[in-house]
Amino acid sequence: MQFEGTTYRPPMEADSMLLQVTVGCAHNRCAFCTMYRDVRFRVIDMEQIERDLIKARQIYPRAERVFLVNGDAFVLPAPRLIDIAGRINHHFPECTTITMYASVQNIQTKTDAQLHELKSCGINDLYIGIESGSEEVIQRLNKGHTVAEAKKELERLNTVGINHMTLLMLGVAGKGRGIESARLTASFVNETRPQMLWAGTLALFEGTELHQAVQRGEFIPQTEYEVLEEEKELLRNIRLNDVPFYGNHPTNLVKVYGILSRDAGRIIQSIDRAIEHHGKEALQTTFSRSSL
Ligand code: SF4
């Protein structure tokens, strides 16, 4: 099987079969992201995908879950995704779920009828980088959509029954704004009802717009203490039932996991214990995460 360029997949898809359908990210403009900066976006041709599936069948005795690589594979037009799903289902009839990263803009380009069709051929569990529920914050991050557009598109997924996993980024609001961002983000997720929440912490990579904004003094990063208080405020305000919360990314100072809202209190207590352990004074700084 061929993989071109850097390949990322969510940690939860560690046991899934990976199939590359695009190279890079079609958006590639988020102000914090370096993941695909060195890669030119392109679509993998169908002959290559077919060859990869034939090879994959020789390697994988079973593949119940397939993750389509790369940064925003849901950018592919619905007919192409349906063609790919058909080929996956032909070679791996046991496959129940075809999943991938998606953006709000990717959903906007699909009609309701197409979303229904995508769902019916096994496409589900879309991982969507929302980062924050604050309009001001996501505009600074160049996410390419508004909060209202994100709410509308996630509601369309809910209506069709396509599960969506919300990816959040702590620390993106900047100094003094974490609590406000947490409240807006909690309100966003309460309204859009994702099936899973994942929260990482902002890492400032050289060459990104956000890193340049820091150097110009236009963006002041949150301290570690502020990021942890932001996470606690987020957890305090989320009202969801039976939704896994993964706050265990390597960028997170304190690794937490639980089912919301049931475990919110326990997670907050463990963050408080970590704050006590490190000491508030030691956390009045921003650790470099650029090597992660
Ligand atoms: S959509 Fe995802 S992969 Fe693409 S630039 Fe934004 S964060 Fe990076």
Characterise the protein shown here.
The chain is built from ten helices and ten strands. Strand 4 (65-69), helix 2 and strand 5 form a beta-alpha-beta unit. Helix 1 (46-59) runs parallel beside helix 2 (78-91). The protein starts with 16 loop residues before the first strand and ends in a 14-residue tail after the last helix. The protein folds into two domains: 1-127, Alpha-Beta Barrel (TIM Barrel); 163-292. It has 292 residues and is an alpha/beta fold. Strands 1-4-5-6-7-8-9-10 form an eight-stranded mixed β-sheet. The chain has helices at 46-59, 78-91, 104-108, 112-120, 135-140, 147-160, 178-192, 209-215, 224-237, 264-278, and strands at residues 17-20, 22-23, 42-43, 65-69, 97-102, 123-131, 164-170, 196-201, 243-247, 256-260. Bound molecules: iron/sulfur cluster (SF4). Iron/sulfur cluster is lined by residues 25, 27-30, 33, 35-36, 71-72, 103, 129.
